[in-house]
Amino acid sequence: MSSLLNKTHDPKLVSWLDTANDGSSDFPIQNLPFAIFKRRDSAEGFRGGVAIGDQIVDLAALSKMHMFDGIVALALKLCCQPTLNEFMAQPAVTWSALRHALSQALAAGSTIESEVKACLIPIDDAEFDLPCRIGDYTDFYTSIHHASTVGALFRPDNPLLPNYKWVPIGYHGRSSSIAVSGQEFHRPKGQTKAPDADQPSVGPCKRLDYEMEVGIYIGGGNALGDSIALDDADQHIFGMCLFNDWSARDIQGWEYQPLGPFLAKNFASTVSPWVVTNEALAPFKTSWSREESDPQPLEYLASDNNCAQGAYDIALEVAIETPQMRAAGDRAHKLTTSSFKHSYWTTAQMIAHHTVNGCNLVAGDFIGSGTQSGPCSEEAGSLLELSNGGKQQVALGNGETRTFLEDGDAVVMSGFCDKEGATRIGFGQCYSLVLPAK
User: Fold this and answer.
1) What pLDDT shows up at residue 153?
2) 3-state class of 262 per DSSP?
3) Active-site positions?
4) CATH fold for domain 137-435
5) Which residues have CB under 8 Å from 337's CB, separation 6+?
6) H/E stretch holding 305
7) Full-prediction pTM beyond 0.90?
8) Looking at the predicted structure, is the pLDDT value of residue 1 above 60?
9) Alpha-carbon distance 396 to 59, whole Å?
10) Does 2 score more than 70 pLDDT?
């Protein structure tokens, strides 16, 4: 079992806040994810908060009560800032100390229940910002099911390139266009070329798509020239979120060779507001393996620990909310359910490979997992796959269909972890809305 497991994961632990104990909340006391928030429509500054049930613990208010000392007091002070970067840059023992102190303070029988209760703000009354300043963003391509299907659409004669099974493939993305859940963006414009056209043209994207991904936030980084060993990755992973890496498939198809994604990917990306800590995810780490017929990872990407518990069993779901559904008051239609456990490369392998050449990661750096498609067709993590490259209509249950996204469509992503012997924890939602092209 993971060394990250401790008393905060005890499934018998309950909170004095009833909404954290109902079994349906994403935020029981075993979770305690972090976010940057303020009261909606207020002049308050953004600051750190932790979710519990339907409430947020205002960490700035808690810090002002001076009930803690040592590294917990330091951690709370750092969480008063409008980004979590300085807190994330602290050693993993500091993250764990604050989490442990909050768990005790929120547990039934806490001696400081009344003081902490005074620091609660309803989640429904809050607005959120990015949890940290994202300096750099790297997007990986870790689902072999996605890579094989998309490869067959773009390169029918050579769908999976020979380096895929040896190298965790990634590219450096655009961090400035990453925004928090609730993001609204205009349909991108760019250069495309129809197969029968003599030359390309410029106009609005016609094949707009989502990508269902997991986002990984780096905490403490590494010095330039050093690398992060595979089995040390847990000390550098602050936490994870849901991530929608929007894609303009028609722009992508024309521009991606020879250097990969550019305008097809840099116009918008959306993250869920809550960062579920790596420690909170410890009970849901699971074994990882390769098919014996596949190449086995090189030495720097292989360890017994990575095989024993390198994967994360995070259930991922995507739903679409069309303007017609919104007007009728209908629920969003579920498109996909899959799991991060299907990833061909583990999070630790991504980090080990990213730094093997001495690349320095810093607190707040962001890693996208790549589209997380499962082995079954209904587990596809994008409309590109679900619609077979736009050749098949995807039925939405209310008579509507889609091949790609239309103006006014919203994509809603959710995720959770649940297994016998552990308390279910969730990620909240990642919501974003497509506006017409400017």
Assistant:
1) 84
2) coil
3) 146
4) Fumarylacetoacetate hydrolase; domain 2 (3.90.850)
5) 315, 316, 317, 378, 379
6) helix 304-309
7) yes
8) no
9) 42
10) no
